[in-house]
Specification:
The complex is a heterodimer. Chain A is mostly helical. Chain A has 2 domains: 2-143 and 279-447, no CATH class; 147-268. Chain A has helices at residues 2-29, 33-62, 65-89, 94-114, 116-132, 136-142, 145-148, 150-167, 187-205, 210-229, 233-251, 254-274, 276-286, 297-309, 332-340, 342-365, 369-393, 411-447; strands at 169-171, 174-180, 183-185. In chain A, strands 1-2-3 form a 3-stranded antiparallel beta sheet, with helices on one face. The mean pLDDT of chain A is 89. Chain B is α+β, with helices and mostly antiparallel strands. In chain B, a hairpin with a 5-residue loop joins strand 14 and strand 15 (383-386). Classes of the chains: A mainly alpha, B alpha+beta.
Chain lengths: 448, 487
């Protein structure tokens, strides 16, 4: 029985995922609201079939009742949070909600397969995050200090990073963990949020004289520098790109973009020659096979998993993702691709891309420069983080040790992504409301 | 009414203008999205092209899963002879069987106690089933194993047997290649062992312990490093041809020894070869003359010539092999140079590499990548992968290969391999007797190809510790030529 279901579902899951992804892109070009709504509904159905199938296969293979319990909790929670957000805020950006839940579903299924305990914790983080963040759209609209006190938040963020630099513990080479009692948190994940709001505020209020740009950039550079000292190169790169692109959008000067990218390239070159751990990563990327026992081990195991899984995957519970190091977190994409297949993996990448396009559209629509820059900052952070993870796992670029948003296991990572996505929803709601107000004014004008 | 509509449009436009920075946001989004497109493109390329080679790695433990689901495919000879297959005992047990026993031990390899040879190089492909998808799906639903793909090799069973028998009880190796394609037609390494799992399990510990220092597990054809002896005069001659305008002007008076700065090199058994030109020096394999020639060479250029033939680097092949080495450089002393030029010294070469070098001469200067696996076929007969004949490098000009071929035919006509002159077609070759210890024991070498004017086959023969190439290696090559091309 379970072999039949497992075997049939190997293909079914890929088809579900392909349709889901296709509908996601079809919604971009759909003009009528009704048609869009229909596509989103179909997406939700596919997501629920995937979630059900995934847990069913896991249950049939393990006979672990906890998996069914988890499935029930996830189902109930998705429904409640959908209901509450809609009741309180009305028109959320539906495709983003869909993608968020689809990625959560993938995370739950894969984590339950790899380690049920992690799946339980991940669910708890997600649930807690979604409840706490319910306040965010309201906060964004009413708490104006956030828009005004940019420098204060920037200093706060920098202090947080410095605390980690001095009191933090290293894990997988980067010193980016803080242990408070039984809690282990990764403050840089939350500093990302503070960083975006702080610099959105500063940049939206600054007059762009050379002196001012230098002052703001020096502050941003301090963040990047501290992260480099913590050996958290992935985060350093993400912060750098985030600031550079925010500055470019705020000033609209191509020269700044070009100079920034040039400076980034120069800094990477210097970093390569200065830090041995950077060279190690690059060498492991260039030829993992020459040192497969040691430095090339992670990436080699990841490629074995992805390659052996093939286009349709080995099937859930049929592979050996346990061989891949850090499979629940940074390398979860390897485990997903091994068991669910490379087609599934490509669909997942496309889901991320369409999600980011919606993010960008929120930034485009936002009228208030603070919100515009914040939305852009979050978009850049999540895009670059996703790219660094996926590129590292597949050996497209050297591995930088960052997590896959929403899918990788980890409380700090999940919470900070939820905060960013809910903030984006908040900004979306604000500009939607302004749109309505303007439309109403115009209608009044027209009536006159 | 229409005016109002226009107004409202205008208002909206103004609203849009107020919202600056949108163009920049699009630029940023496009830039980052382009990275993702690149990532997807690379990912597809990895899956479609690279993944098969990547996963076929002994560090990838997933073969144990695949072996539970797939019946390991067969390894076949060029005419479809079964060289290795998995046989079911009908009770759910399986065993790997090698119908030709020890005949293909090293080249086909074994599959228990680790894997070697084709069993290793095609491990994951043999465990992958590209059979009819409907059949496979049905089998999976029934909980049955699917049937893995078969590897069809370039190996010629008849030729392999002739070479195997000809080497007899000697230690050594024979590599037979098709010069125009790089196909390995036969590859023998002795001593060998029985590759069948039952026997291997029993013998394994003693094979690994290797109390008699026979190194049965080593495939000497690809991994054995030997001094090249006089066969290396081919390289020295080529280096000299490249550094001299007119080789026909060369002459040397052999007195059985060559003395320079107190360093003495003797001809074989101090034989006095008398007045020589380059061709007769080559044919008679005059050590004194080549030691002298070596001192005339620019060592850097000499090294470059050898390195262009893949000395000191990995050979262009997927087969597991060792690097041949050539150690001269501009600081080398005269003694090293004189010994290296005649084929002694520290130079080391694998039989496979030697076969590739003569094949290059036979193939007008183009070295082909040698290969053993011709293609992979699914159980239902569809071709899954086919090896393309690939040129590794063009190393010599046609003129150079012609000149060398002339010298090498002279070896058969009047030199050290005259016993091959009885064949009805011309043969080109070079013998070697490589001394490997102070007591002047030597390995017997022969490298050659035939027919010399239209090469179809190239061979490298080495017989360990036997004696001279003329006496021990040439007769083996003769049997190979006779079997492949007739008398």
């Amino acid at each position: 029985m379970e072999t039949i279901i497992t075997e049939l579902s190997r293909y079914l899951i890929v088809i579900l995922m392909a349709l889901y992804t296709f509908w996601g892109f079809a919604a971009f070009s759909a003009k009528k609201k009704k048609k869009k709504a229909r596509l989103y509904r179909k997406q939700r159905i596919n997501m629920h079939i995937f979630l059900l199938l995934g847990h069913l296969i896991l249950y049939l293979n393990t006979n672990d009742v906890i998996i069914l319990g988890l499935y029930g909790c996830e189902l109930v929670f998705f429904m409640i949070s959908n209901f509450l957000y809609r009741k309180i805020y009305g028109k959320m950006n539906q495709p983003i909600v869909n993608h968020m839940q689809m990625l959560f579903s993938i995370s739950f299924v894969m984590l339950a397969r790899l380690n049920v305990d992690s799946a339980k914790k991940q669910f708890a983080y997600m649930a807690a995050g979604m409840v706490v963040c319910m306040i965010l759209p309201w906060l964004l609209r009413h708490y104006h200090k956030l828009q005004e006190e940019g420098w204060f938040y920037a200093v706060l963020g920098l202090i947080l990073l410095l605390v980690v630099l001095f009191f933090g513990k290293a894990k997988y080479g980067a010193k980016n963990w803080l242990y408070i009692g039984p809690l282990s948190i990764q403050p840089s994940e939350f500093v990302k949020v503070i960083f975006v709001f702080a610099f959105a505020s500063i940049l939206s209020q600054t007059k762009f004289t050379l002196k001012n740009v230098a002052k703001v950039s020096a502050m941003a550079a301090a963040f990047v520098l501290v992260l480099v000292l913590e050996k958290d190169l992935g985060a350093a790169l993400i912060f750098f790109l985030c600031y550079l692109f925010m500055l470019y959008v705020a000033t609209g000067k191509k020269r700044i973009l070009a100079a920034g990218l040039g400076a980034g390239a120069a800094a990477s070159f210097v970093g390569y020659h200065l830090f041995s751990h950077v060279r190690t990563r690059v060498l492991a990327w260039q030829n993992p096979w020459s040192d497969i026992d040691n430095k090339g081990y992670q990436i080699a195991q990841s490629l074995f998993a992805i390659g052996t899984g093939g286009w349709f995957g080995m099937g859930l519970m049929q592979g050996m993702p346990d061989r891949v190091p850090i499979r629940e977190s940074d390398f979860i994409f390897a485990a997903i691709s091994e068991e669910l297949g490379a087609f599934f993996g490509i669909c997942m990448i496309l889901i991320y891309v369409s999600c980011f396009i919606w993010f960008a559209s929120i930034a485009v629509k936002a009228a208030n420069p603070f919100f515009k820059l914040s939305a852009l900052g979050f978009t850049v952070i999540m895009m670059s983080q996703t790219f660094l993870t996926l590129g590292g796992v597949t050996k497209f670029i050297p591995s930088t040790g960052v997590t896959l948003p929403l899918v990788s296991y980890g409380g700090s990572s999940v919470l900070s992504v939820i905060v960013m996505m809910c903030s984006l929803q908040g900004i979306h709601l604000i500009s939607d409301k302004e749109d309505e107000e303007i439309d109403e004014e115009q209608e009044e004008l027209e009536e006159e | 009414m229409t005016k109002n509509k226009k107004n409202s449009k205008k208002n909206k436009k103004e609203k849009g203008e107020k919202r600056g920075g949108n163009r920049e946001i699009l630029v940023v989004t496009y830039m980052l999205s382009a990275l993702f497109l690149g990532l997807i493109g690379y990912f597809v390329y990895f899956m479609a092209v690279q993944s098969k080679d990547v996963i076929n790695n002994s560090y990838n433990q997933r073969q144990t899963i695949l072996a539970k689901r797939v019946v390991r495919g067969k390894i076949l000879g060029r005419k479809g002879e079964v060289l290795a297959e998995t046989v079911s005992d009908g009770k759910g047990g399986e065993t790997r069987s090698y119908p030709y026993g020890r005949l293909f031990t090293h080249v086909v390899g074994h599959s228990s106690q680790g894997k070697t040879g084709v069993e290793l190089s095609e491990n994951f492909n043999l465990l992958t089933s590209n059979d009819n998808p409907v059949t496979n799906f049905q089998k999976k639903l029934d909980g049955k194993k699917t049937i893995g793909d078969n590897a069809i090799t370039t190996l010629d069973v008849d030729l392999q047997r002739v070479a195997y028998d000809a080497l007899g009880n000697h230690k050594g190796a024979i590599v037979i290649m098709e010069p125009s394609t790089g196909k390995i037609l036969a590859m023998v390494s002795k001593p060998d062992y029985d590759p069948s799992p039952a026997s291997l399990d029993i013998q394994w510990n003693s094979l690994v312990a290797d109390a008699n220092e026979e190194s049965c597990l080593v495939n000497r054809a690809t991994q054995g490093l030997y001094p090249p002896g006089s066969t290396f005069k081919i390289m020295t001659t080529l280096a000299y041809m490249r550094q001299t305008e007119d080789t026909s002007k060369f002459s040397y008076q052999c007195q059985g020894t060559e003395k320079q700065d107190g360093i003495v090199v003797n001809c074989y058994r101090n034989h006095v070869h008398g007045n020589l030109n380059l061709q007769s020096a080559f044919a008679k394999s005059c050590n004194s003359c080549f030691a002298y020639l070596g001192t005339k060479l620019n060592t850097n250029e000499y090294r470059k010539v050898c390195e262009s033939f893949y000395f000191n680097t990995k050979l262009p092949t997927k087969m597991v092999h060792n690097k041949s080495s050539f150690v001269l450089n501009k600081d080398s002393n005269k003694e090293e140079i004189m010994h290296t030029a005649m084929g002694q010294g520290k130079t080391q070469i694998t039989p496979l590499h030697a076969a590739m070098i003569v094949s290059t001469i036979a193939n007008k200067g183009v070295m082909m990548q040698p290969y053993v696996v011709e293609k992979l076929e699914s159980n239902s007969g569809t071709v899954v992968r086919e090896t393309k004949e690939t040129a590794a490098r063009t190393i010599m000009t046609e003129e150079e290969t012609k000149e060398l071929t002339t010298y090498m035919t002279e070896v058969i006509r009047s030199g050290t391999a005259t016993s091959l002159s009885s064949l009805s077609y011309p043969v080109a070759g070079k013998t070697g007797s490589a001394e490997y210890d102070a007591t002047k024991n030597s390995h017997a070498w022969f490298l050659g190809f035939a027919p010399a004017d239209k090469p179809k086959v190239a061979v490298a023969v080495i017989v360990e510790g036997a004696g001279t190439g003329s006496e021990y290696a040439v007769p083996i090559a003769k049997k190979v030529f006779q079997s492949f091309l007739g008398n």
